[in-house]
Amino acid sequence: MTRFALKDLIDDRPEDGVFRINRAMFRDEELFNLEMRHIFEGGWVFVGLATQAENPHDYFTTFIGRVPVIVSRDGEGTLRCFVNACPHKGVRLVQKPCGSARMHVCPYHSWTFDSAGANRNIKWQKRGCYGAGFDQENHDLAAVAQFGEYRGFLFASLNADVPSLEDYLGEARALLDLVADKSPEGVELVPGRVRFTYRANWKMQLENCSDQYHFTSTHPSYIRILEQRAKEKSDDVVEASLGASDFWQEGAKGVTGGTFSFDHGHVLNWGAMGVSAASPDFERAEEIAGRLGEPRRNWIFNMRNLTIFPNLQIADNASSQMRVIRPLGPNLTEMQTWCIAPRGESAEARRFRIRQYEDFFNPTGMATPDDTVCYEEAQTGMAEQERGWLQGHARGFTATQDGGNPFSDMLGMTPARNVVADAQLCDESLFQSYYKAWAERMAEVVQ
Amino acid sequence: MSALQAELAHLLSHEARLLDESRFAEWIDLYTPDCLYWMPAWREDGTLTQDPDTELSMIFYRGRRNLEDRVKRLNSGHSVASNAMTRVTHMVTNVILDEDDNATARTRAAFLVNVYDARTSLTHNFFGSYRHAFRRDGEAWKISEKIIHLQNEVIPTMLDIYSI
Ligand code: FES
Ligand SMILES: [Fe+2]
Protein backbone atom coordinates (compact mmCIF):
# COMPACT_ATOMS: atom_id res chain seq x y z
CA MET A 1 0.00 0.00 0.00
CA THR A 2 1.12 3.55 -0.58
CA ARG A 3 1.16 6.45 1.79
CA PHE A 4 -1.39 8.37 -0.29
CA ALA A 5 -5.02 8.92 0.63
CA LEU A 6 -7.30 10.25 -2.07
CA LYS A 7 -8.85 12.84 0.24
CA ASP A 8 -5.40 14.40 0.78
CA LEU A 9 -4.94 14.85 -2.96
CA ILE A 10 -8.41 15.63 -4.30
CA ASP A 11 -10.87 17.49 -2.08
CA ASP A 12 -14.16 16.76 -3.83
CA ARG A 13 -17.13 17.90 -1.74
CA PRO A 14 -19.83 19.10 -4.12
CA GLU A 15 -22.30 19.58 -1.23
CA ASP A 16 -19.97 22.26 0.19
CA GLY A 17 -19.17 23.81 -3.20
CA VAL A 18 -15.58 22.55 -3.00
CA PHE A 19 -13.29 20.98 -5.57
CA ARG A 20 -9.61 21.35 -4.84
CA ILE A 21 -6.37 19.71 -5.93
CA ASN A 22 -3.35 19.40 -3.68
CA ARG A 23 0.06 20.57 -4.84
CA ALA A 24 1.46 17.11 -4.02
CA MET A 25 -0.25 15.88 -7.19
CA PHE A 26 2.28 17.83 -9.23
CA ARG A 27 5.55 17.13 -7.46
CA ASP A 28 5.65 13.78 -5.66
CA GLU A 29 8.11 11.27 -7.11
CA GLU A 30 6.37 8.18 -5.72
CA LEU A 31 3.01 9.40 -6.94
CA PHE A 32 4.54 10.00 -10.35
CA ASN A 33 5.75 6.40 -10.56
CA LEU A 34 2.25 5.23 -9.66
CA GLU A 35 0.81 7.45 -12.38
CA MET A 36 3.13 5.86 -14.92
CA ARG A 37 2.15 2.38 -13.80
CA HIS A 38 -1.57 2.91 -13.39
CA ILE A 39 -2.48 5.74 -15.76
CA PHE A 40 -0.05 5.55 -18.67
CA GLU A 41 0.73 1.82 -18.47
CA GLY A 42 -2.61 0.82 -16.95
CA GLY A 43 -5.14 1.90 -19.55
CA TRP A 44 -5.79 3.39 -22.96
CA VAL A 45 -3.29 5.93 -24.28
CA PHE A 46 -2.94 7.52 -27.70
CA VAL A 47 -0.03 6.18 -29.76
CA GLY A 48 -0.31 7.84 -33.17
CA LEU A 49 -2.21 8.23 -36.43
CA ALA A 50 -2.78 5.38 -38.86
CA THR A 51 -1.28 7.59 -41.58
CA GLN A 52 2.07 7.44 -39.75
CA ALA A 53 2.37 3.83 -41.01
CA GLU A 54 0.48 4.09 -44.26
CA ASN A 55 1.76 1.16 -46.32
CA PRO A 56 2.54 -2.52 -45.58
CA HIS A 57 5.72 -2.87 -43.47
CA ASP A 58 5.74 0.83 -42.49
CA TYR A 59 6.29 1.43 -38.80
CA PHE A 60 6.82 4.11 -36.20
CA THR A 61 8.07 3.88 -32.64
CA THR A 62 6.85 5.60 -29.52
CA PHE A 63 6.34 4.96 -25.81
CA ILE A 64 3.43 3.84 -23.70
CA GLY A 65 4.39 5.28 -20.35
CA ARG A 66 7.97 4.11 -19.91
CA VAL A 67 7.62 1.16 -22.28
CA PRO A 68 8.98 1.48 -25.84
CA VAL A 69 6.55 0.25 -28.52
CA ILE A 70 6.45 -0.19 -32.29
CA VAL A 71 3.32 0.40 -34.32
CA SER A 72 3.79 -1.63 -37.49
CA ARG A 73 1.62 -2.37 -40.49
CA ASP A 74 2.13 -6.00 -41.40
CA GLY A 75 2.33 -7.45 -44.90
CA GLU A 76 -1.45 -7.86 -45.02
CA GLY A 77 -1.98 -4.19 -44.16
CA THR A 78 -3.11 -4.75 -40.56
CA LEU A 79 -1.79 -2.35 -37.95
CA ARG A 80 -0.24 -3.97 -34.91
CA CYS A 81 1.45 -2.70 -31.79
CA PHE A 82 4.31 -4.48 -29.98
CA VAL A 83 6.68 -3.79 -27.18
CA ASN A 84 9.85 -2.53 -28.85
CA ALA A 85 12.17 -4.76 -26.86
CA CYS A 86 13.84 -7.99 -27.88
CA PRO A 87 12.64 -11.05 -25.94
CA HIS A 88 16.27 -12.27 -25.81
CA LYS A 89 17.93 -9.71 -23.56
CA GLY A 90 15.62 -6.76 -23.75
CA VAL A 91 17.49 -4.62 -26.26
CA ARG A 92 15.34 -1.99 -27.95
CA LEU A 93 14.79 -3.61 -31.31
CA VAL A 94 14.08 -0.55 -33.48
CA GLN A 95 15.89 2.69 -32.76
CA LYS A 96 14.49 4.81 -35.59
CA PRO A 97 11.37 6.93 -35.01
CA CYS A 98 9.86 5.65 -38.28
CA GLY A 99 10.61 3.70 -41.42
CA SER A 100 9.65 0.72 -43.51
CA ALA A 101 11.04 -2.81 -43.03
CA ARG A 102 9.87 -6.37 -43.69
CA MET A 103 12.26 -7.65 -41.05
CA HIS A 104 13.67 -6.14 -37.90
CA VAL A 105 17.03 -7.56 -36.84
CA CYS A 106 18.07 -7.04 -33.26
CA PRO A 107 21.43 -5.23 -33.12
CA TYR A 108 22.71 -7.36 -30.23
CA HIS A 109 22.47 -11.07 -31.25
CA SER A 110 20.52 -10.83 -34.51
CA TRP A 111 17.21 -12.35 -33.49
CA THR A 112 14.89 -11.42 -36.33
CA PHE A 113 11.23 -10.44 -36.34
CA ASP A 114 8.85 -9.71 -39.21
CA SER A 115 6.54 -6.72 -39.56
CA ALA A 116 3.79 -8.71 -37.81
CA GLY A 117 6.06 -9.13 -34.77
CA ALA A 118 6.64 -12.87 -35.29
CA ASN A 119 10.07 -14.27 -34.53
CA ARG A 120 11.58 -15.45 -37.81
CA ASN A 121 15.04 -16.40 -36.71
CA ILE A 122 17.02 -17.20 -33.60
CA LYS A 123 20.66 -17.23 -34.61
CA TRP A 124 22.22 -20.73 -34.38
CA GLN A 125 19.16 -22.06 -32.57
CA LYS A 126 19.77 -25.72 -33.44
CA ARG A 127 23.28 -25.74 -31.95
CA GLY A 128 22.18 -23.70 -28.95
CA CYS A 129 21.63 -26.69 -26.60
CA TYR A 130 18.47 -25.02 -25.31
CA GLY A 131 16.42 -26.71 -22.61
CA ALA A 132 12.79 -27.71 -23.09
CA GLY A 133 11.59 -24.64 -21.21
CA PHE A 134 13.06 -22.31 -23.80
CA ASP A 135 11.42 -24.17 -26.67
CA GLN A 136 8.05 -23.81 -24.99
CA GLU A 137 8.38 -20.06 -24.66
CA ASN A 138 6.91 -17.64 -27.17
CA HIS A 139 9.78 -15.78 -28.88
CA ASP A 140 7.65 -13.26 -30.78
CA LEU A 141 7.57 -9.61 -29.87
CA ALA A 142 5.05 -9.03 -27.09
CA ALA A 143 1.86 -7.56 -28.50
CA VAL A 144 0.28 -4.87 -26.34
CA ALA A 145 -2.77 -6.08 -24.45
CA GLN A 146 -5.23 -3.88 -26.34
CA PHE A 147 -4.88 -1.95 -29.56
CA GLY A 148 -7.55 -0.10 -31.47
CA GLU A 149 -8.30 2.55 -34.04
CA TYR A 150 -10.96 5.19 -34.17
CA ARG A 151 -11.16 7.23 -37.39
CA GLY A 152 -7.41 6.93 -37.90
CA PHE A 153 -6.50 7.67 -34.27
CA LEU A 154 -4.61 4.74 -32.75
CA PHE A 155 -4.81 3.85 -29.07
CA ALA A 156 -3.19 1.08 -27.07
CA SER A 157 -3.28 -0.30 -23.54
CA LEU A 158 -0.71 -2.43 -21.74
CA ASN A 159 -3.52 -3.57 -19.45
CA ALA A 160 -6.03 -6.05 -20.92
CA ASP A 161 -8.70 -5.19 -18.38
CA VAL A 162 -10.04 -1.98 -19.93
CA PRO A 163 -13.32 -0.96 -21.56
CA SER A 164 -13.55 -1.28 -25.33
CA LEU A 165 -11.97 1.67 -27.17
CA GLU A 166 -15.43 2.72 -28.31
CA ASP A 167 -16.63 2.85 -24.72
CA TYR A 168 -13.44 4.50 -23.55
CA LEU A 169 -13.76 7.37 -26.02
CA GLY A 170 -17.51 7.38 -25.46
CA GLU A 171 -19.37 10.49 -26.51
CA ALA A 172 -16.09 12.34 -27.14
CA ARG A 173 -15.91 10.37 -30.38
CA ALA A 174 -18.12 13.04 -31.92
CA LEU A 175 -15.28 15.52 -31.34
CA LEU A 176 -12.68 13.30 -33.02
CA ASP A 177 -15.19 13.05 -35.87
CA LEU A 178 -15.04 16.83 -36.26
CA VAL A 179 -11.28 16.55 -36.75
CA ALA A 180 -11.47 13.58 -39.12
CA ASP A 181 -14.43 14.93 -41.08
CA LYS A 182 -12.76 18.13 -42.25
CA SER A 183 -11.99 16.24 -45.42
CA PRO A 184 -13.68 13.19 -46.95
CA GLU A 185 -10.14 11.78 -47.15
CA GLY A 186 -9.49 12.23 -43.42
CA VAL A 187 -6.52 13.92 -41.78
CA GLU A 188 -2.75 13.63 -41.91
CA LEU A 189 0.27 15.09 -40.18
CA VAL A 190 2.17 17.78 -42.01
CA PRO A 191 5.82 16.61 -42.33
CA GLY A 192 7.99 18.01 -39.55
CA ARG A 193 7.60 17.19 -35.88
CA VAL A 194 8.51 19.73 -33.23
CA ARG A 195 9.56 18.48 -29.82
CA PHE A 196 10.21 20.37 -26.63
CA THR A 197 10.55 19.65 -22.96
CA TYR A 198 9.44 21.68 -19.99
CA ARG A 199 10.48 21.37 -16.39
CA ALA A 200 7.07 20.85 -14.86
CA ASN A 201 4.46 18.17 -14.33
CA TRP A 202 2.53 16.67 -17.25
CA LYS A 203 -0.78 17.77 -15.75
CA MET A 204 0.15 21.42 -16.31
CA GLN A 205 -0.07 20.78 -20.04
CA LEU A 206 -3.19 18.68 -19.56
CA GLU A 207 -4.92 21.59 -17.85
CA ASN A 208 -3.53 24.45 -19.92
CA CYS A 209 -5.05 23.14 -23.13
CA SER A 210 -8.49 23.55 -21.60
CA ASP A 211 -7.71 26.72 -19.63
CA GLN A 212 -9.55 29.60 -21.27
CA TYR A 213 -8.83 31.79 -18.26
CA HIS A 214 -5.14 32.32 -19.08
CA PHE A 215 -5.38 33.47 -22.68
CA THR A 216 -5.61 37.24 -22.29
CA SER A 217 -3.25 37.24 -19.28
CA THR A 218 -0.48 35.01 -20.60
CA HIS A 219 -0.49 36.09 -24.24
CA PRO A 220 -0.93 39.89 -24.35
CA SER A 221 2.34 40.25 -26.27
CA TYR A 222 0.95 37.98 -28.98
CA ILE A 223 -2.52 39.54 -28.88
CA ARG A 224 -1.06 43.02 -29.42
CA ILE A 225 0.76 41.80 -32.48
CA LEU A 226 -2.47 40.29 -33.80
CA GLU A 227 -4.27 43.56 -33.23
CA GLN A 228 -1.64 45.52 -35.06
CA ARG A 229 -1.53 43.04 -37.94
CA ALA A 230 -5.32 43.22 -38.23
CA LYS A 231 -5.08 47.01 -38.64
CA GLU A 232 -2.32 46.99 -41.21
CA LYS A 233 -3.33 44.04 -43.39
CA SER A 234 0.29 43.69 -44.54
CA ASP A 235 0.99 40.92 -47.03
CA ASP A 236 4.25 40.21 -45.22
CA VAL A 237 2.54 38.71 -42.16
CA VAL A 238 0.07 35.87 -41.80
CA GLU A 239 -3.57 36.62 -40.99
CA ALA A 240 -4.53 35.20 -37.61
CA SER A 241 -7.75 33.24 -37.16
CA LEU A 242 -8.03 34.32 -33.53
CA GLY A 243 -7.81 37.96 -34.63
CA ALA A 244 -11.03 37.45 -36.60
CA SER A 245 -13.05 36.33 -33.55
CA ASP A 246 -13.95 37.81 -30.21
CA PHE A 247 -14.96 34.88 -27.98
CA TRP A 248 -11.85 35.45 -25.85
CA GLN A 249 -12.22 39.20 -25.48
CA GLU A 250 -13.30 40.74 -22.22
CA GLY A 251 -16.13 42.74 -23.77
CA ALA A 252 -17.62 40.03 -26.01
CA LYS A 253 -21.40 39.75 -25.62
CA GLY A 254 -23.64 36.76 -24.98
CA VAL A 255 -22.70 33.09 -25.14
CA THR A 256 -19.11 32.89 -26.38
CA GLY A 257 -18.46 29.19 -25.87
CA GLY A 258 -18.22 26.75 -23.03
CA THR A 259 -16.98 23.36 -21.95
CA PHE A 260 -17.95 19.72 -22.14
CA SER A 261 -16.74 17.00 -19.80
CA PHE A 262 -16.89 13.30 -20.56
CA ASP A 263 -16.44 10.04 -18.72
CA HIS A 264 -12.87 8.70 -18.61
CA GLY A 265 -11.33 12.18 -18.44
CA HIS A 266 -11.89 13.65 -21.88
CA VAL A 267 -12.78 17.34 -22.10
CA LEU A 268 -13.43 20.06 -24.62
CA ASN A 269 -13.36 23.78 -24.22
CA TRP A 270 -14.71 25.70 -27.15
CA GLY A 271 -15.23 29.24 -28.36
CA ALA A 272 -17.64 30.55 -30.96
CA MET A 273 -15.88 31.43 -34.20
CA GLY A 274 -17.65 32.22 -37.42
CA VAL A 275 -17.20 30.57 -40.80
CA SER A 276 -14.42 32.93 -41.80
CA ALA A 277 -11.78 33.28 -44.47
CA ALA A 278 -9.30 33.67 -41.62
CA SER A 279 -9.48 29.86 -41.31
CA PRO A 280 -7.66 27.63 -43.79
CA ASP A 281 -10.76 25.39 -43.76
CA PHE A 282 -12.79 28.17 -45.39
CA GLU A 283 -12.24 26.78 -48.89
CA ARG A 284 -14.19 23.69 -47.79
CA ALA A 285 -16.99 25.50 -45.97
CA GLU A 286 -19.60 24.71 -48.63
CA GLU A 287 -18.40 21.18 -49.25
CA ILE A 288 -18.43 20.38 -45.53
CA ALA A 289 -21.91 21.83 -45.07
CA GLY A 290 -23.17 19.72 -47.98
CA ARG A 291 -21.61 16.56 -46.59
CA LEU A 292 -22.25 16.98 -42.85
CA GLY A 293 -24.97 19.65 -42.63
CA GLU A 294 -24.60 23.21 -41.42
CA PRO A 295 -24.58 22.59 -37.65
CA ARG A 296 -21.57 20.26 -37.89
CA ARG A 297 -19.87 22.54 -40.37
CA ASN A 298 -20.27 25.48 -38.00
CA TRP A 299 -18.82 23.37 -35.20
CA ILE A 300 -15.76 22.63 -37.33
CA PHE A 301 -15.09 26.38 -37.52
CA ASN A 302 -15.43 26.88 -33.74
CA MET A 303 -12.33 27.08 -31.57
CA ARG A 304 -12.00 23.61 -30.04
CA ASN A 305 -9.41 22.38 -27.58
CA LEU A 306 -9.91 18.67 -27.10
CA THR A 307 -8.14 16.43 -24.61
CA ILE A 308 -8.43 12.67 -24.86
CA PHE A 309 -7.15 11.59 -21.46
CA PRO A 310 -4.35 11.17 -20.64
CA ASN A 311 -1.99 12.14 -23.47
CA LEU A 312 -3.68 13.39 -26.65
CA GLN A 313 -4.65 16.99 -27.29
CA ILE A 314 -6.00 18.45 -30.49
CA ALA A 315 -6.12 22.20 -30.59
CA ASP A 316 -8.15 23.79 -33.34
CA ASN A 317 -7.77 27.49 -32.67
CA ALA A 318 -4.96 29.60 -34.16
CA SER A 319 -4.33 26.70 -36.56
CA SER A 320 -4.65 22.95 -36.00
CA GLN A 321 -2.25 21.07 -33.74
CA MET A 322 -1.91 17.52 -32.48
CA ARG A 323 0.08 17.18 -29.27
CA VAL A 324 1.21 14.09 -27.44
CA ILE A 325 2.19 14.45 -23.80
CA ARG A 326 5.00 12.22 -22.52
CA PRO A 327 5.78 12.54 -18.82
CA LEU A 328 9.47 11.97 -18.04
CA GLY A 329 9.43 12.79 -14.33
CA PRO A 330 7.30 14.67 -11.81
CA ASN A 331 9.14 17.83 -12.92
CA LEU A 332 9.85 17.04 -16.56
CA THR A 333 7.58 16.51 -19.57
CA GLU A 334 8.26 16.04 -23.25
CA MET A 335 5.83 17.36 -25.83
CA GLN A 336 5.64 16.04 -29.37
CA THR A 337 3.72 18.34 -31.65
CA TRP A 338 2.53 18.28 -35.23
CA CYS A 339 0.35 20.31 -37.53
CA ILE A 340 -2.67 18.09 -38.26
CA ALA A 341 -4.41 18.90 -41.52
CA PRO A 342 -7.22 17.67 -43.76
CA ARG A 343 -5.98 15.56 -46.62
CA GLY A 344 -6.41 16.97 -50.07
CA GLU A 345 -6.64 20.63 -49.09
CA SER A 346 -5.37 23.16 -51.61
CA ALA A 347 -1.71 24.17 -51.61
CA GLU A 348 -2.75 27.68 -50.63
CA ALA A 349 -4.80 26.49 -47.62
CA ARG A 350 -1.99 24.21 -46.51
CA ARG A 351 0.55 27.01 -46.67
CA PHE A 352 -1.80 29.32 -44.72
CA ARG A 353 -2.38 26.64 -42.06
CA ILE A 354 1.35 26.06 -41.62
CA ARG A 355 2.16 29.77 -41.34
CA GLN A 356 -0.58 30.33 -38.74
CA TYR A 357 0.69 27.31 -36.85
CA GLU A 358 4.35 28.27 -36.53
CA ASP A 359 3.83 31.69 -35.01
CA PHE A 360 1.43 30.45 -32.34
CA PHE A 361 2.17 26.83 -31.46
CA ASN A 362 5.90 26.34 -31.80
CA PRO A 363 8.24 26.59 -28.80
CA THR A 364 10.08 28.97 -31.14
CA GLY A 365 6.92 31.02 -31.74
CA MET A 366 5.22 33.94 -30.02
CA ALA A 367 2.70 32.21 -27.74
CA THR A 368 3.67 28.74 -26.50
CA PRO A 369 6.86 29.91 -24.69
CA ASP A 370 4.70 32.08 -22.44
CA ASP A 371 2.60 29.03 -21.54
CA THR A 372 5.49 26.69 -20.84
CA VAL A 373 7.34 29.26 -18.77
CA CYS A 374 4.18 29.62 -16.67
CA TYR A 375 4.08 25.82 -16.17
CA GLU A 376 7.63 25.96 -14.86
CA GLU A 377 6.85 28.85 -12.56
CA ALA A 378 3.82 26.90 -11.31
CA GLN A 379 6.05 23.91 -10.66
CA THR A 380 8.24 26.07 -8.44
CA GLY A 381 5.14 26.99 -6.51
CA MET A 382 4.15 23.34 -6.05
CA ALA A 383 6.70 22.93 -3.24
CA GLU A 384 5.32 21.48 -0.02
CA GLN A 385 3.88 24.24 2.14
CA GLU A 386 1.33 25.03 4.82
CA ARG A 387 -1.44 25.84 2.32
CA GLY A 388 -1.27 22.79 0.08
CA TRP A 389 -4.60 23.19 -1.71
CA LEU A 390 -4.69 25.04 -5.03
CA GLN A 391 -7.53 27.43 -5.88
CA GLY A 392 -7.40 26.82 -9.61
CA HIS A 393 -10.22 24.34 -10.17
CA ALA A 394 -13.13 26.37 -8.87
CA ARG A 395 -14.47 28.63 -11.62
CA GLY A 396 -17.71 27.49 -13.18
CA PHE A 397 -18.77 25.47 -10.16
CA THR A 398 -22.31 26.81 -10.13
CA ALA A 399 -22.56 26.96 -13.94
CA THR A 400 -22.02 23.23 -14.43
CA GLN A 401 -25.01 21.24 -15.68
CA ASP A 402 -25.31 17.50 -16.04
CA GLY A 403 -25.65 16.16 -19.58
CA GLY A 404 -25.71 18.14 -22.79
CA ASN A 405 -27.08 21.41 -24.10
CA PRO A 406 -28.28 22.72 -27.48
CA PHE A 407 -24.66 23.00 -28.64
CA SER A 408 -23.84 19.36 -27.98
CA ASP A 409 -27.26 18.38 -29.37
CA MET A 410 -26.10 19.81 -32.69
CA LEU A 411 -23.54 17.01 -32.74
CA GLY A 412 -25.89 14.37 -31.37
CA MET A 413 -23.48 14.13 -28.45
CA THR A 414 -24.28 13.75 -24.75
CA PRO A 415 -21.42 14.79 -22.48
CA ALA A 416 -21.43 13.96 -18.77
CA ARG A 417 -21.44 17.68 -17.89
CA ASN A 418 -21.41 21.00 -19.67
CA VAL A 419 -20.95 24.69 -19.05
CA VAL A 420 -22.30 27.42 -21.32
CA ALA A 421 -20.05 30.43 -20.93
CA ASP A 422 -19.78 34.10 -21.59
CA ALA A 423 -16.37 35.62 -22.26
CA GLN A 424 -15.46 36.07 -18.62
CA LEU A 425 -16.68 32.79 -17.13
CA CYS A 426 -13.66 30.71 -18.21
CA ASP A 427 -14.77 27.43 -16.70
CA GLU A 428 -12.33 25.47 -14.54
CA SER A 429 -14.82 22.84 -13.45
CA LEU A 430 -14.02 20.81 -16.57
CA PHE A 431 -10.66 19.94 -14.95
CA GLN A 432 -12.65 17.83 -12.50
CA SER A 433 -13.08 15.36 -15.30
CA TYR A 434 -9.29 14.85 -15.48
CA TYR A 435 -9.08 14.19 -11.77
CA LYS A 436 -12.09 11.90 -11.65
CA ALA A 437 -10.42 9.80 -14.37
CA TRP A 438 -7.13 10.05 -12.52
CA ALA A 439 -8.79 8.74 -9.35
CA GLU A 440 -10.45 5.87 -11.24
CA ARG A 441 -7.20 4.69 -12.79
CA MET A 442 -5.34 5.08 -9.49
CA ALA A 443 -8.10 3.45 -7.43
CA GLU A 444 -5.99 0.36 -6.73
CA VAL A 445 -3.25 2.36 -5.05
CA VAL A 446 -4.87 5.60 -3.89
CA GLN A 447 -8.12 5.30 -1.98
CA MET B 1 40.96 33.84 -47.51
CA SER B 2 39.61 36.34 -50.02
CA ALA B 3 38.84 39.88 -48.98
CA LEU B 4 35.16 39.22 -49.57
CA GLN B 5 35.19 36.12 -47.42
CA ALA B 6 36.84 38.08 -44.64
CA GLU B 7 34.33 40.87 -45.01
CA LEU B 8 31.33 38.54 -44.82
CA ALA B 9 32.82 36.54 -41.93
CA HIS B 10 33.18 39.85 -40.15
CA LEU B 11 29.54 40.65 -40.87
CA LEU B 12 28.49 37.30 -39.37
CA SER B 13 30.52 38.08 -36.26
CA HIS B 14 28.90 41.48 -36.13
CA GLU B 15 25.41 39.95 -36.36
CA ALA B 16 26.34 37.57 -33.54
CA ARG B 17 27.60 40.44 -31.42
CA LEU B 18 24.40 42.44 -31.90
CA LEU B 19 22.33 39.45 -30.74
CA ASP B 20 24.66 38.85 -27.78
CA GLU B 21 24.18 42.46 -26.74
CA SER B 22 20.42 42.58 -27.39
CA ARG B 23 20.91 45.38 -29.93
CA PHE B 24 17.87 44.22 -31.84
CA ALA B 25 17.13 47.41 -33.79
CA GLU B 26 20.65 47.35 -35.24
CA TRP B 27 20.32 43.61 -35.83
CA ILE B 28 17.14 44.07 -37.87
CA ASP B 29 18.92 46.79 -39.85
CA LEU B 30 21.29 44.15 -41.21
CA TYR B 31 18.41 42.54 -43.13
CA THR B 32 16.79 43.45 -46.43
CA PRO B 33 13.05 44.32 -46.26
CA ASP B 34 12.17 41.16 -48.21
CA CYS B 35 14.52 38.88 -46.28
CA LEU B 36 13.97 35.18 -45.66
CA TYR B 37 14.45 34.01 -42.06
CA TRP B 38 13.98 30.27 -41.83
CA MET B 39 14.67 27.48 -39.39
CA PRO B 40 13.26 24.20 -40.75
CA ALA B 41 11.90 21.47 -38.48
CA TRP B 42 13.08 17.86 -38.36
CA ARG B 43 11.02 15.10 -39.89
CA GLU B 44 10.72 11.90 -37.85
CA ASP B 45 13.08 10.19 -40.29
CA GLY B 46 15.90 12.46 -39.17
CA THR B 47 15.93 14.77 -42.18
CA LEU B 48 15.14 18.47 -42.25
CA THR B 49 11.96 19.76 -43.85
CA GLN B 50 12.75 21.37 -47.18
CA ASP B 51 9.59 22.94 -48.55
CA PRO B 52 8.16 25.50 -46.13
CA ASP B 53 4.88 25.66 -48.08
CA THR B 54 4.05 21.97 -47.58
CA GLU B 55 6.11 21.14 -44.50
CA LEU B 56 6.44 22.56 -41.03
CA SER B 57 9.27 24.87 -40.01
CA MET B 58 10.28 25.89 -36.53
CA ILE B 59 10.39 29.48 -37.79
CA PHE B 60 9.58 30.72 -41.27
CA TYR B 61 9.36 34.37 -42.19
CA ARG B 62 9.54 36.16 -45.47
CA GLY B 63 9.83 39.88 -44.78
CA ARG B 64 11.79 41.84 -42.19
CA ARG B 65 8.47 43.00 -40.78
CA ASN B 66 8.11 39.62 -39.05
CA LEU B 67 11.44 40.08 -37.28
CA GLU B 68 10.23 43.49 -36.17
CA ASP B 69 7.17 41.81 -34.63
CA ARG B 70 9.39 39.32 -32.82
CA VAL B 71 11.49 42.11 -31.38
CA LYS B 72 8.39 44.06 -30.44
CA ARG B 73 7.20 41.09 -28.43
CA LEU B 74 10.59 40.66 -26.77
CA ASN B 75 10.61 44.27 -25.67
CA SER B 76 6.89 44.50 -24.85
CA GLY B 77 7.18 43.66 -21.16
CA HIS B 78 4.08 41.48 -21.71
CA SER B 79 5.78 38.16 -22.40
CA VAL B 80 6.82 36.24 -19.30
CA ALA B 81 9.09 34.10 -21.47
CA SER B 82 10.96 37.20 -22.61
CA ASN B 83 11.29 39.09 -19.36
CA ALA B 84 14.03 37.06 -17.76
CA MET B 85 17.23 38.58 -19.16
CA THR B 86 18.55 35.51 -20.95
CA ARG B 87 22.27 35.93 -21.62
CA VAL B 88 23.68 34.47 -24.79
CA THR B 89 27.07 34.17 -26.47
CA HIS B 90 27.30 33.23 -30.13
CA MET B 91 30.33 31.51 -31.62
CA VAL B 92 30.32 31.63 -35.41
CA THR B 93 33.05 29.84 -37.27
CA ASN B 94 34.02 27.67 -40.28
CA VAL B 95 32.80 30.37 -42.64
CA ILE B 96 32.86 29.29 -46.28
CA LEU B 97 32.08 31.59 -49.17
CA ASP B 98 29.92 29.57 -51.53
CA GLU B 99 29.00 31.87 -54.38
CA ASP B 100 29.48 35.48 -55.16
CA ASP B 101 29.20 38.07 -57.85
CA ASN B 102 29.29 41.82 -57.52
CA ALA B 103 25.75 42.07 -56.22
CA THR B 104 25.13 38.91 -54.16
CA ALA B 105 26.99 36.33 -52.10
CA ARG B 106 26.30 33.21 -50.05
CA THR B 107 28.09 31.78 -47.04
CA ARG B 108 27.87 28.71 -44.85
CA ALA B 109 29.04 28.74 -41.27
CA ALA B 110 28.82 26.75 -38.04
CA PHE B 111 27.33 28.22 -34.89
CA LEU B 112 27.22 27.46 -31.20
CA VAL B 113 25.13 29.59 -28.90
CA ASN B 114 25.59 29.23 -25.18
CA VAL B 115 22.51 30.32 -23.31
CA TYR B 116 22.24 31.23 -19.67
CA ASP B 117 18.65 31.49 -18.49
CA ALA B 118 18.56 33.84 -15.52
CA ARG B 119 15.03 32.74 -14.60
CA THR B 120 16.06 29.14 -13.95
CA SER B 121 19.84 29.63 -13.52
CA LEU B 122 20.29 26.91 -16.14
CA THR B 123 22.76 26.87 -18.99
CA HIS B 124 22.22 25.09 -22.28
CA ASN B 125 23.31 25.47 -25.85
CA PHE B 126 22.02 25.45 -29.38
CA PHE B 127 24.24 24.49 -32.28
CA GLY B 128 24.11 23.89 -36.00
CA SER B 129 24.82 25.67 -39.23
CA TYR B 130 23.89 28.92 -40.91
CA ARG B 131 23.39 29.60 -44.55
CA HIS B 132 23.35 33.30 -45.25
CA ALA B 133 22.68 35.10 -48.51
CA PHE B 134 23.76 38.71 -48.92
CA ARG B 135 22.82 41.49 -51.26
CA ARG B 136 24.94 44.53 -51.93
CA ASP B 137 23.47 47.78 -50.65
CA GLY B 138 25.78 50.59 -51.74
CA GLU B 139 29.08 50.03 -49.98
CA ALA B 140 27.61 47.57 -47.47
CA TRP B 141 26.12 44.08 -47.60
CA LYS B 142 22.65 43.30 -46.28
CA ILE B 143 21.42 39.86 -45.26
CA SER B 144 18.72 38.68 -47.68
CA GLU B 145 18.48 35.12 -46.26
CA LYS B 146 19.33 33.39 -43.06
CA ILE B 147 18.63 29.67 -42.91
CA ILE B 148 19.33 27.99 -39.60
CA HIS B 149 19.80 24.24 -39.30
CA LEU B 150 19.46 23.52 -35.61
CA GLN B 151 21.02 20.17 -34.78
CA ASN B 152 19.71 19.67 -31.24
CA GLU B 153 16.07 19.55 -32.11
CA VAL B 154 14.44 19.02 -28.70
CA ILE B 155 13.89 22.54 -27.41
CA PRO B 156 14.38 22.97 -23.68
CA THR B 157 11.21 24.96 -22.84
CA MET B 158 11.66 27.66 -25.48
CA LEU B 159 13.94 29.21 -28.05
CA ASP B 160 13.79 32.74 -29.39
CA ILE B 161 15.58 34.53 -32.21
CA TYR B 162 18.41 35.71 -29.97
CA SER B 163 19.42 32.09 -29.17
CA ILE B 164 20.14 31.03 -32.74
S1 FES C 1 19.04 -8.89 -27.24
FE1 FES C 1 18.11 -9.11 -29.12
S2 FES C 1 19.14 -10.79 -29.99
FE2 FES C 1 20.06 -10.60 -28.06
FE1 LIG D 1 -1.66 29.59 -23.89
Automatic annotation (TrEMBL), chain A:
Keywords: 2Fe-2S, Iron, Iron-sulfur, Metal-binding, Oxidoreductase
Pfam families: Rieske, Ring_hydroxyl_A
Domain Rieske: 44-144
Statement: the UniProt record of this protein carries the keyword Iron-sulfur: yes
GO molecular function: 2 iron, 2 sulfur cluster binding; iron ion binding; oxidoreductase activity
SUPFAM superfamilies documented for this protein: Bet v1-like, ISP domain
Coiled-coil regions, chain positions: none
The UniProt record lists the keyword Iron: yes
Domain of life the protein comes from: Bacteria
Similarity comment text for this entry: Belongs to the bacterial ring-hydroxylating dioxygenase alpha subunit family.
Designated name of the protein: Ribosomal subunit interface protein
Organism whose genome encodes this protein: Aurantiacibacter xanthus
UniProtKB/TrEMBL annotation, chain B:
Protein name: Aromatic-ring-hydroxylating dioxygenase subunit beta
The keyword Oxidoreductase is assigned to this record: yes
Family: Belongs to the bacterial ring-hydroxylating dioxygenase beta subunit family.
GO biological process: 3-phenylpropionate catabolic process
Top-level taxon of the source organism: Bacteria
Species classification: Bacteria, Pseudomonadati, Pseudomonadota, Alphaproteobacteria, Sphingomonadales
Entry keyword set: Dioxygenase, Oxidoreductase
Xref: SUPFAM superfamilies: NTF2-like (SSF54427)
A GO molecular-function annotation: dioxygenase activity
